Amino acid sequence: MKKIIVLLVSIILFYSCKEDVKETATYAEKTPETSQFSIVIHGGAGYIRKDSTSDEKEAEYRQKLEEAIRVGYNILKDGGSSLDAVQKTINILEDSPLFNSGKGGVYTNEGMCEHDASIMDGSTLNAGASAGTKTVKNPIDLARAIMEKSPHVMLAREGAETFAQEQGLDIVDPSYFYTEKSMKALERVKASENKKVASFYDSDIQNSKFGTVGCAALDKHGNLAAGTSTGGMTNKRWGRIGDSPIIGAGTYANNNTCAISSTGWGEYFIRGMVAYDISALMEYKNLSLKEAAKQVVQNKLPSIGDGKGNGGIIAVDKHGNMVMEFNTPGMFRATMNDEGELYVGMFKD
């Protein structure tokens, strides 16, 4: 009898170990080798096509994307925080007239730049956001100041600008944001037959309503962060605010899952709570970042409302895996990992 019991226990233990090995193998397939740190950025998604982009303009975009991501990469490499990497990387993009954020922000119907931005700390779930500012040179700096130096998550318009002044942030005259490119885009939209509808038009992102910059990063301490900054839509009215400053729609970070920045037609990203939805699929359904991002961007977004939920996201998970998922012809984007490997893309590969 003793021998039979011992035999039965041995069989049970054998199959239990097999199940453990099986589960471990499945998990390993979902989480490739962990990276010490990773960083991914975007400069907007939309109708970005090779056949409509000159070699000179393509080189200009690629150079600026590389410049920006290397700033964040060096911060992470030296042991800096993901928050610093995100903020400083976005600063480079905000200071460039190439992108619809900061200096390159597009114009409202009144001929002004109104900026939105947000940032989130994955280690604490703290977040900060600003909306509708006209004089803050770097809106992402304001978003971080709101997160760290106020009891609030979002401040808007005059109140946000007053707070920015109190925090000693760089304040500029609205004329600083003037670019011929943005003025021509406004004139084109106003002259169009559909001029009642706000849209972001850019000769490099043709007939597009999408223009944003963003960054997501994982640092050596295992902390995730994400940030997003935008000028919104050309010809927007009535104080319109898109998804970029909305935590859960345009930006989200959680150390348990991932960090995400969105770019696209903001109204649809808000309605779909895109950034949080990807994180939730990972947390509650145990999907990988790649699986969750694909499901939301390729399936859910286009099915919202009249099917105009277009755009993309960039993201990094807690293991350092990066994803750049978009359902448009192109997205300005770049990645760097802890090996220093750089990727810069514009079109669908």
TrEMBL record:
GO terms for biological process: proteolysis. The keyword Protease applies. Keywords: Autocatalytic cleavage, Hydrolase, Protease. The keyword Hydrolase applies. InterPro entries: Ntn_hydrolases_N, Peptidase_T2. GO terms for molecular function: hydrolase activity, acting on carbon-nitrogen (but not peptide) bonds, in linear amides; peptidase activity. It comes from the Bacteria. PROSITE patterns: PROKAR_LIPOPROTEIN. Substrate binds at residues 240-243, 263-266. The record marks 211-212 as: Cleavage. The active site is at 212 (nucleophile). This is Isoaspartyl peptidase.
